[in-house]
Design brief:
Elements (H helix, E strand, L loop, with lengths): L6 H21 L10 H15 L14 H39 L5 E4 L4 E4 H16 L2 H15 L11 H40 L5 H19 L1 H22 L2
Antiparallel strand pairs: 1-2
């Protein structure tokens, strides 16, 4: 029989993990998309919390309506949002890679709405985002992300702890990896298109009367798509490695 005095502790046992889980779903890929219904996100966070709490270590009992409770809630939000943000960087790297290729190929004007972020991005960025989403779901990345959050309660149980002094710097350094990953995705096709543009520049100097725009524009676009197709196997492997590294970095962030 549940006593009235035990009810606040039982509520808090579920409330703080729910806050961390909700923050994760708010910032994580797919779950945090603008097209993902808010009600479904809340229900999913509640269901995941109900399944995880019986397996989690006991945390501190802190009054929700106190200053300590406000600080603890903010801490749980920061932890969950930071973990989701780290994995979200993989999708951001795919967007940057697509933008770099689109501008080099002359397709920067071809824009479409990204359902993940709700903003307009080049079509090539949309292509890479769709590929990243399918790979993320194919390897059960959404389940691994929830598993990583469950592991974070073992590394950092619910309680008022001081973050490491390097915590903000760690997030910034992991954010810089986004640009490295984008460069690795786009580099093969980007290099090929750049060499083609250099070749057309040499041709223009050798034969100024040649209408280079009428010839070079379709050739650059066609060559870009060919090299994108040829580099797809390596892009798949790279995205898998990026997701694995993102999950690992998300856990290292709360170590």
């Amino acid at each position: 029989m549940l006593l009235a005095s035990e009810l606040p502790a039982l509520i808090q046992q579920y409330f703080w993990p729910f806050v961390r889980m909700s923050a994760l779903f708010l910032a994580a890929p797919i779950f945090g998309a603008s097209t993902f219904p808010v009600r479904a996100r809340i229900l999913l966070a509640v269901a995941a919390t109900l399944l995880l709490v019986p397996q989690l270590p006991a945390g501190e009992v802190v009054d929700v309506f106190s200053i300590a409770g406000a600080l603890l809630g903010a801490q749980q939000v920061v932890i969950g949002a930071a973990m989701g943000f780290i994995v979200q960087l993989v999708f951001a790297a795919a967007v940057i890679a697509g933008q770099s290729l689109a501008m080099t190929m002359g397709l920067g004007f071809a824009m479409s709405v990204d359902p993940q972020n709700g903003v307009q991005v080049p079509v090539l960025s949309q292509l890479y985002v769709i590929l990243a989403t399918l790979i993320f779901l194919a390897v059960d990345g959404h389940l691994l992300l929830i598993q990583a959050l469950a592991s974070s309660f073992e590394l950092l149980p619910v309680g008022l702890y001081a973050f490491r002094e390097t915590f903000p710097l760690d997030i910034v350094m992991l954010g810089s990896q986004m640009f490295v990953s984008a460069l690795l995705i786009a580099l093969p096709a980007l290099t090929a298109v750049l060499l083609i543009n250099i070749a057309f520049g040499v041709i223009t100097r050798a034969a100024p009367q040649l209408n280079i725009f009428a010839v070079g524009f379709p050739v650059t676009i066609l060559a870009g798509f060919i090299f994108i197709l040829l580099t797809m196997p390596s892009v798949f492997k790279l995205m898998l490695a990026m997701f694995e590294s993102g999950m690992h970095d998300a856990l290292l962030l709360v170590r």
